[in-house]
Structure formats: structure tokens, C-alpha cells
Design brief:
499 residues, 17 helices
Length: 499
């Protein structure tokens, strides 16, 4: 049988030991510690009783409820963690059925949501914030993550369909560019038309397909000098081959308006709504559009064109804005003509000879006729889709643009520091997983990632260690704010906090 013994030490303290008496001799089984006052003595005796209970084979018939005691003056903060935030984002990953992915991919995606950084820095922060350790050899494993791309896109499709009841009658498509923190180009990362105003740096082109609400479905990476019009069909074919039951109407901006591209879509029996390039239309058609709409705010009309039906609408607000911009450009052009400054390029000027320029009055007339007017081309006739719905569907393109902004700014997809092609593709894939989680949270809670980060990051775990017993106590920060927020339903559903 075990007993607790008190022994006076040379320093005047009282040592607490767990002993076992065999005959007239005592055997010290565990030295618990030395106490300098009655409070420390009580704590050590409690710890000794716990040790005896844990090391006694026979269970007590009347177990005593253990109480954890900590003396504040003897406590030391040894760290603050954010396990709640990690659990929250992990539950979101599970909700999107992505928890089967390699833990490295999931953790790097979570770090994109929490604090975007380089892969090296992300590994440091995973350990610092969450106590998750990785070897620096992860760089060898990162390129291998690209094999999961098709599976991840299938999960995204399922989430859009099952969680948000997304119809796939329409999908939105757009492209963007991601630049590299490098000036060394190759056949893949190469200079091209940059949407980030980084024309001197290598880049890649990303084509992204999203639902009507902006939920990401699929993407592809192209060489940095690829014309964006040539990116749409490969992305669509990949999506449709994975989901042959869907044949959606494609909504894209005017950059996709190319007869060759549209012919390819018609050949595949895919319908489209794309922005029209009205300044390229003939003066006769422009006059017809202007006359029909006649400056009526909200007016709509449909005209035949070589790209299909041309739907146009007039907005008075758009007219005022464009008129102001047009007057500035004309004024600048008139000043250049008056000075005959041949080296400065601007709109509404044309060269007569090598030494003479003049105003392009035909172009100015056409532009004045088009003030306040916007056009949309579609192969769907009015019986299939009304003018109002054509325009409304096109206006939803801001959602794919929003997804690009989320990936570029919230998740800091660019600049890219990787050089090898597979590592570049893995980086984009990690950001795509993070974008799925971010968009899921945004659609579910109506909160931005910035607001969500603030709420979940405020829930911390403070670790206090008793300097005498070396026992660590964990205290969670108050949760009232987050439980009264729009995140409360998810927190309750995922059982993240005690009721």
C-alpha cells in the first residue's frame, strides 16, 4: 500500500514523497516536490494522491472527483495557440468533402485562409499557431499533389449541387494572369498581356469556371502568352467530359468574342452569352441601334449580327459617365492635332501622312452614337431567352471576377515564387482548395473571409504552467462574440464549442 510522507529538507522546505512500507523499511517510489508554504504543501499532497490513484491497480468503490488547482502567482504563460481556428477551417474542409486529401495539402490550404505566406513560412506558422510539425522536405512532396486536381473539382461540383442547389444551366467563365517574382522566363511562365500590370515579368494564364453564385468549379493553367480567347474551350470540354449530363450556357466577356471561338462552341452545340464589341460594328448598324433605343433609360432591343443575336440596352447613368470620359479624350486629341505631336498615341487621331495627323471624325461620331449603350451577343433567340435575362446573366460575370479578387488578395495567389512547372501547378491547386472553402463560408454566412478570420482568430487557448508541479492548464478566451455572430449556426452544427 502506498503512503504520503513529509520530510524536512536542509533548506527548511517540506518534501512530499510517495512511499511504500515493507516491514520497518520505507521505499521511496516518487518524489513529488518541495513546498515552502502551506498552499504549496496542499498542492503537492493533492498531486501525490493523484499519483497513487493512477498507479494503484485496484479501483476505488467510491472514486473522488479530481479538482485541478493552480496558484496564480506561481503560474507562467508558456504559449498561446489558435486550435479553435484550425478546427473551424478543418470542419469547413470536411463539409466540402475534401478531408480525404493528403494532410499537407489541407494544412497548406488552411494557411492560405489564415495567413497567406510562402511554403517555408507556412510550415513555420503551422507549428507556431497550431503545433503541427512538418519537415522541410515537404518541397519534394508538393509537386505530387497535382494528381488530386480532378477529384477536387468533382468535390467542388458536388458541393455546388448538393449544398447550394446550384443549377448548371449557366456557368460563368473568365481568365486572369498570375505573375512571378522573377524575370527568368521559359515556354510556360512567359511574358504576355498582364492583368496585373506586370508586363516585364513572366506569368501564367488561369481560366476559371464558376457557378451563377461564383462557386468555383474548374480551372486550367495556360502559358503566359496564351490569347485568352483560346482558353475557354479546353476548360469547358474538361468540365463537360467530367459531367456529360450538363450542357450549360457559357457566359463570358467581350474578350471571348471571336468568330472562330464562337464557331467552335456552336460545333460543340454549346450556347453562349458574350459581351459585344460595338465600336467594331459598322456605322450603319450603330446608327440603327442608336435610333431604336433613342436614349430611353432601360431600353432594350435585339438585332441580327454575324455573331448571333445582338441584344443592346441603354443606361442614362452609363451615358453620363461615358460622355464625360469621351469629352476628355476628344479634348486631348484636339490639342495633339493643334500641336501636330506625331509621337503621342491617343484615340480619335489618324495619320494623314508621316508628318500630319487629324481627328478621326468617323470614329468620334460612332462613339457618340454608342454613349450609354452596351451590347451582348448570344446564339439563343428571344423565345429561348428574353432580352432581360440575357443582360441579367451577363451582369453576373462580376461573380467570377470576385472569385479572382478573392484568390489574388485574400489568398495571395500571386506573386508565385516556384520555378518548376509541377510546383507551380501544385501552388495553384492549393489556392483552389482554399478558394472552395472561402466561397463555401461566404455563401453560407454572408461574411467575408476578413470578417471570418477576425472572429475565429479571437478565440485563443492560453497555456499556463504551474512552476512547482509543472502541470499545464489551458484557458480558452471568451466566446460570446462569436456565438452571437453569423458564424453561430456553423459552430453549433460542427459542435466546436460547449453549449
Amino acid at each position: 500500500m502506498y503512503s504520503i510522507r513529509k520530510v524536512k529538507t536542509k533548506s527548511g522546505s517540506t518534501a512530499i514523497q510517495v512511499v511504500r512500507y515493507i516491514g520497518h523499511k520505507s521505499m521511496v517510489l516518487k518524489h513529488i516536490g518541495s513546498a515552502k508554504d502551506d498552499i504549496e504543501l496542499s498542492v503537492l499532497q493533492r498531486k501525490a494522491l493523484d499519483w497513487i490513484e493512477d498507479n494503484t491497480p485496484q479501483l476505488s468503490l467510491f472514486p473522488v472527483q479530481k479538482q485541478k488547482l493552480m496558484v496564480v502567482d506561481r503560474g507562467e504563460c508558456i504559449g498561446v495557440t489558435h486550435h479553435f481556428a484550425y478546427q473551424f477551417f478543418m470542419k469547413c474542409i470536411e463539409e466540402c468533402s475534401l478531408n480525404y486529401l493528403p494532410r499537407l495539402l489541407i494544412d497548406l490550404a488552411i494557411m492560405r485562409l489564415v495567413e497567406p505566406a510562402s511554403k517555408y513560412r507556412s510550415i513555420e506558422l503551422l507549428q507556431h499557431y497550431f503545433g503541427i510539425k512538418y519537415s522541410q522536405r515537404i518541397y519534394r512532396k508538393i509537386p505530387e499533389l497535382t494528381i488530386y486536381k480532378a477529384d477536387i473539382e468533382q468535390c467542388a461540383y458536388n458541393v455546388a449541387q448538393q449544398k447550394f442547389n446550384e443549377p448548371f444551366y449557366f456557368v460563368l467563365y473568365d481568365v486572369t494572369t498570375l505573375y512571378f517574382e522573377s524575370f527568368k522566363a521559359d515556354e510556360f511562365k512567359i511574358q504576355g498581356f498582364s492583368k496585373d500590370n506586370k508586363s516585364q515579368q513572366p506569368q501564367i494564364v488561369i481560366g476559371l469556371l464558376v457557378t451563377q453564385s461564383g462557386f468555383p468549379l474548374s480551372y486550367q493553367i495556360f502559358a503566359g502568352n496564351t490569347f485568352e480567347g483560346k482558353t475557354m474551350l479546353p476548360v469547358l470540354e474538361t468540365f463537360i467530359s467530367a459531367h456529360p449530363q450538363t450542357k450549360p450556357v457559357i457566359v463570358a466577356d467581350a474578350a471571348m468574342l471571336d468568330e472562330e471561338r464562337l464557331a467552335e462552341l456552336r460545333k460543340k452545340e454549346l450556347s453562349y452569352i458574350v459581351g459585344a464589341r460595338l465600336p467594331n460594328a459598322t456605322l450603319g448598324l450603330v446608327k440603327q441601334i442608336h435610333s431604336t433605343l433613342n436614349g430611353k433609360n432601360g431600353g432594350m432591343a435585339r438585332f441580327p449580327s454575324k455573331h448571333g443575336d445582338l441584344v443592346c440596352d441603354f443606361s442614362l447613368k452609363r451615358y453620363k459617365k461615358e460622355l464625360n470620359e469621351l469629352n476628355k479624350l476628344i479634348l486631348k486629341a484636339e490639342e495633339l492635332v493643334a500641336k501636330q505631336e506625331l509621337k503621342v498615341k491617343t484615340r480619335f487621331i489618324r495619320k494623314v501622312t508621316k508628318e500630319k495627323i487629324e481627328l478621326n471624325t468617323v470614329l468620334i461620331e460612332k462613339r457618340r452614337l454608342l454613349l450609354g449603350i452596351k451590347g451582348y451577343c448570344t446564339d439563343l433567340n428571344e423565345q429561348q431567352l428574353s432580352n432581360e435575362k440575357v443582360i441579367d446573366r451577363y451582369h453576373q460575370l462580376w461573380r467570377v471576377e470576385q472569385s479572382f479578387r478573392m484568390s489574388k488578395f485574400d489568398l495571395q495567389t500571386r506573386p508565385i515564387y516556384h520555378q518548376k512547372h509541377e510546383a507551380i501547378k501544385a501552388h495553384v491547386l492549393i489556392c483552389f482548395v482554399a478558394l472552395i472553402a472561402e466561397k463555401y463560408l461566404e455563401l453560407t454566412t454572408k461574411l467575408s473571409l476578413r470578417e471570418i478570420r477576425f472572429l475565429v482568430w479571437n478565440i485563443t487557448e492560453t497555456h499556463i504552467q504551474d512552476n512547482l508541479t509543472k502541470e499545464t492548464f489551458v484557458f480558452r478566451s471568451p466566446t460570446k462574440e462569436i456565438q452571437n455572430s453569423k458564424l453561430a449556426p456553423l459552430i453549433s452544427k460542427w459542435n466546436l464549442l460547449p453549449h
